[in-house]
Amino acid sequence: FAGATAEIKEYNIAIEALGRPSDFNPQTDTIVRVTAHTLRKRLEAYYNAEGADHEVHIGLPSGHYMPQFTYRGANGAIGAQAGRIENAERQRNMQSLAAWLRPHRVGRSVSAVSVILTVALALASYYLLAKRPGARPFPTAAAALALNSAAPGLHAMVGSHAQFVDRAGSVWEPDHFCSGGTEFAVVGHSILGTEDSELFSAGRRGQFQCNFPVVPGIYEVHLLFAETAGLQENSRSVGFSINGGPVSSVDVVDDAGGDDIATAKVLTDISPAKDGMIHVDFTTPDSFVNGIEILPGFPHRMLPVRILAARNSYRDGEGNLWLSDRYFQGGRLSRFGGDLSKVPDGGIYDGHRFGHFRYIIPVARGGRYTVRLHFLEHWFGVPSGSMGGSGSRVFSVWCNGTVLLRNFDIYAEGGAQPVVKSFVHIEPTAQGKIELSFMPTVNYPSVSAIEIIPE
């Protein structure tokens, strides 16, 4: 409208419409090309469906970034009127719009058409996402307050077109936040370290982008991975960045401790970009991800992690959610089966993992944590009349190479009552992990629940 079409360049769109920093490099960041492709398809889908009767259709010609405006005449045909509307009333409206836009331009890099492109992107995204059956509605102001206080956040499957409810009761949405790359599915793999293997049954690989609409606030982002291609360490590097920030990389096999093992990267202090989105960009050709969580967070520290050695979640008397078992390697689950009605929050102790096992729990790097281990003797000397007692189960617990408990005996310390052991100032590994190894001395080690509390 303002005749500034020369300013509609990849760099300007990245900076002014998509919120990228001034050092944006189109050679390494394909966000504009991918977003333009997505916008083009969404516009086509919209005008082929509910927008078919609109008098003006907005298009984005293939290979170009300048929008094309075509007028749909009274006979229903689309006229090739690229930017020109014959009706005098529409011309006056366009001139008024251009007159308003000229004094409101911000510097040379923002043109009227850039504004229109941004509006088109927002409208197309809204109609295609918000109106999709079962889609998550954009949060209102009231929803924003709830989201940042008690709501479970946003859980997104990647590469999957089906909704999934995990054992903690969280609803994972189908993949309508990501574009680019290639979708893939995983068949015949048993994923260790999770009771929700379905989360790792699909994904997206290559260079691609994920954009999550959120309300203003502080968020914690979890990227979920499980390497299922049979690769060894140093075979695949996943590069990713948040909101156009520095690129981080992860070797999933090394991070998880092997193939077919669930792991996650935890990123804190994430705020939406200027466009109200949290952008997660995967930058290397062999990148991939299985799922992404966006959780309301705290400034400068991670959310607490509470894990039960059980197949289902539990909410304690203080309202804390204990997640189903995850990030484990080795051992097996079992249930107590006895009367825990007189034990405060007995649901924490109803199950246990026993055997020769370890937990590799992802946390945010750079902080210190308090680790609490919850125990209840499930077999030896319990009131049901099992054999043995003190000395029947003895084991040690190591954390990141340092011993926490040596020759620990649950029954000797607590009898038939729960035992809680706390350890402070635990620093994560360089990978952002707290690794807990349970080493047998006499019979099998056992644990009922684990808490990781940021200090």
Give an overview in words.
- This protein is α+β, with helices and mostly antiparallel strands.
- It is built from seven helices and 27 strands.
- The protein has helices at residues 10-17, 31-47, 88-101, 112-130, 141-147, 252-256, 410-414; strands spanning 56-59, 68-72, 78-79, 154-157, 164-165, 171-173, 178-185, 202-213, 219-225, 238-242, 248-250, 263-270, 277-282, 288-289, 291-296, 305-308, 314-315, 321-322, 328-335, 351-362, 369-375, 394-399, 402-408, 419-426, 433-442, 446-447, 449-454.
- The strands form six sheets. A six-stranded mixed beta sheet has the order 5-6-4-15-9-12. Strands 7, 8, 10, 11, 13 and 14 form a six-stranded antiparallel beta sheet that branches. Strands 19, 20, 22, 23, 25 and 26 form a six-stranded antiparallel beta sheet that branches.
- A hairpin with a 5-residue loop joins strand 5 and strand 6 (171-173).
- The chain is elongated and about 90 Å long.
- The relative contact order is 0.10.
- Mean pLDDT is 83; it is low at 78-90, 100-112 and 125-151.
Main sheet specs: 6 strands, mixed
Inertia-based shape: elongated
Radius of gyration: 27 Å
Helical segment count: 7
Question: What is the secondary structure topology, with strand pairs?
Answer:
Blueprint: H1 10-17, H2 31-47, E1 56-59, E2 68-72, E3 78-79, H3 88-101, H4 112-130, H5 141-147, E4 154-157, E5 164-165, E6 171-173, E7 178-185, E8 202-213, E9 219-225, E10 238-242, E11 248-250, H6 252-256, E12 263-270, E13 277-282, E14 288-289, E15 291-296, E16 305-308, E17 314-315, E18 321-322, E19 328-335, E20 351-362, E21 369-375, E22 394-399, E23 402-408, H7 410-414, E24 419-426, E25 433-442, E26 446-447, E27 449-454
Parallel strand pairs: 4-6
Antiparallel strand pairs: 1-2, 2-3, 4-15, 5-6, 7-8, 8-13, 8-14, 9-12, 9-15, 10-11, 10-13, 16-27, 17-18, 19-20, 20-25, 20-26, 21-24, 21-27, 22-23, 22-25
Helix pairs in contact: 1-4, 2-4
